[in-house]
Every structure is written in C-alpha cells, then in structure tokens.
Specification:
Elements lengths: L2 E5 L6 H13 L3 E6 L5 E2 L5 E2 L3 E2 L10 E4 L4 H6 L3 H12 L3 E5 L3 H7 L6 E2 L6 H6 L3 E2 L6 E3 L2 E4 L5 H10 L2
Parallel strand pairs: 1-2, 1-6, 2-5, 6-7, 7-11, 8-9
Antiparallel strand pairs: 3-4, 10-11
Amino acid sequence: MKRAVIITSTGFRDEEFTYPYYRLLEAGFKVDIATKDGSTVYGKFGQPAKANLSVGDLKAEDYDLCLLPGGLEAPDHVRAWPEALDLIRKMDKAGKIIAAICHAPWILISAGIVSGRKLTAYWSMEDDVRNSGAEYLHKAPVVIDGNIITSPHYDNNPDFMKGVLSKF
C-alpha cells in the first residue's frame, strides 16, 4: 500500500487539505496527518485536520509522498520546524514525491531543495521562489520537476492531484 503524510499547522487553506486528503484515500493511499505535536489543528475556515502523528515521529523511509497544504499561516509555521525540514530533505534525497500548493513552497525553500528547479506557487511568492534559485512558472496550474510537484491555488486542485497521482 502506498503511504502519504500530510504535514500542516493552524490556518491551512481548507480546500488544499480536504481535497487532496480524500483524493489520496480514493487512490488507495494510507494517509497520515502530522502536526507539530500531533494535535488537531484547524483550517482558515474551521476544517479540522485530525493528526495521528507529530512531525518529530516521521521517518522518510515510511512514506512515498509528502503533501504540504497551503494557506498563508500554516506553511509559515511548518517551515520553522526543523523536524519537518529534515524530513523534506531526506525525502528529496531519496527521490520521493513532495507536493506543495499555494504558499507551501515556502517549506521547500526553507528546506533548501529548490535551487535550479522549476516551480509554481501563489503569485505573491514569485520573488521568494526566484530568490531561492528556482525558476518561477507564472500561471501554470501545476509544475512537475522530477519528484517535486507544485501548484499555485486551490482552484488548481484537480490539476495538482492529477499531477501527484501521475507519479504513482
């Protein structure tokens, strides 16, 4: 069985958590949800993300996919967690799939894994992406660069998840 982990924090964009979560379940993944301390967190509009793990308990070898929902607040929290950044680096080094939507590419930038790659993100992140050494693809609904999949907005959820699932 394929295994995915969704890492998030308070203030995630509800649609960028819920839609991918259910699409992964439909595709036969076992999906874990990890937060800083393993507690339930809530999206911008109140959607709960009921964690079953804390980020410190995650091991890259246990997962085929790491999915990072966006929103403005949650990715800003997650990119400050050394354990999350370490997991992302290990998964990238192993060539495992890492998918980030909206502002979640901030986490990839903070992990130091985007230089020389192509990505997209929410439009206001263009400078962040370019300053990290990555190429920003404006208005692309999804960008797949090797094992990294990015998308700019929850309106692109169908393209985002088709891109993610195409890797499996």
